[in-house]
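Regression test case RT-17, inverse folding.

Input:
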């Protein structure tokens, strides 16, 4: 494991610095086949459906644009597009642009109901270099993927997302302190087995999903690290945390450009 990753933020303990990695998840590696990547995406899709993740995230996103007529929402790292699809189901006047950096995932979205919806646009987009003009959206959303970005890139993503949408909703895990993180890593294989049974994951999807899940936990950002990233993105960007419920669940973080 390498040490330069800043997931623990300023003042991280020696244990916390040790529990860091620059190793990429399978879904981030060009050398990994699309078949393996899609197994992970499919597993996350099943888990999200089984535990109501897409529903809760969609309702939170719509809460943030409740006072906006005909809101425009950009989703980054959309995977199979389930979040964007649920947003469209819940509000008839919303328009969504569902994007992902992986062309295979975008092809799956484009070939499904999301691609056929006239209120949806599906395209390949790099979340750190969004091609849209300033103020193109009322909200930008990134669920369960922000930890994939190394610190410098993550700060640029915050700056760019708040440029095109002013408000940027990130729903991802929050890194706990070193001892708590170590405990969660040790228990993760058992938890993954239980989740796999509950979500009825095919056996072939479990090893790559287990691998990526462990890497995720090592790459998560702590509260202090997120605050540091927001400051690096711009002095006029504020950050709001909504940390509640189980420590294993994802937590919303809202970046706002003033």
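Golden output:
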């Amino acid at each position: 494991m390498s040490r330069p990753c800043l997931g623990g933020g300023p003042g991280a303990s020696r244990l916390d610095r040790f529990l860091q990695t620059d190793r990429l998840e399978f879904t981030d590696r060009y050398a990994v086949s699309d078949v393996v990547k899609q197994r992970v995406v499919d597993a996350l899709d099943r888990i999200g459906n089984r535990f109501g993740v897409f529903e809760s995230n969609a309702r939170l996103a719509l809460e943030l644009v409740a006072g906006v007529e005909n809101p425009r929402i950009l989703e980054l790292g959309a995977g199979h597009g389930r979040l964007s699809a649920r947003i469209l189901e819940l509000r008839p006047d919303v328009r969504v642009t569902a994007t992902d950096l992986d062309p295979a995932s975008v092809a799956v979205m484009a070939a499904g109901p999301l691609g056929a919806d006239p209120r949806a646009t599906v395209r390949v987009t790099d979340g750190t270099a969004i091609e849209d003009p300033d103020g193109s959206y009322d909200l930008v959303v990134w669920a369960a993927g922000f930890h994939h970005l190394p610190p410098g890139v993550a700060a640029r993503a915050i700056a760019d997302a708040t440029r095109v949408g002013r408000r940027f909703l990130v729903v991802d895990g929050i890194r706990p302190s070193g001892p708590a993180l170590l405990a969660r890593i040790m228990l993760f294989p058992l938890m993954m087995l239980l989740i796999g049974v509950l979500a009825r994951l095919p056996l072939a999807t479990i090893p790559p999903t287990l691998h990526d899940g462990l890497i995720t936990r090592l790459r998560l950002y702590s509260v202090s690290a997120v605050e540091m990233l927001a400051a690096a993105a711009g002095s006029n960007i504020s950050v709001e945390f909504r940390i509640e419920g189980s420590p294993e669940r994802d937590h919303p973080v809202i970046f706002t450009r003033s």
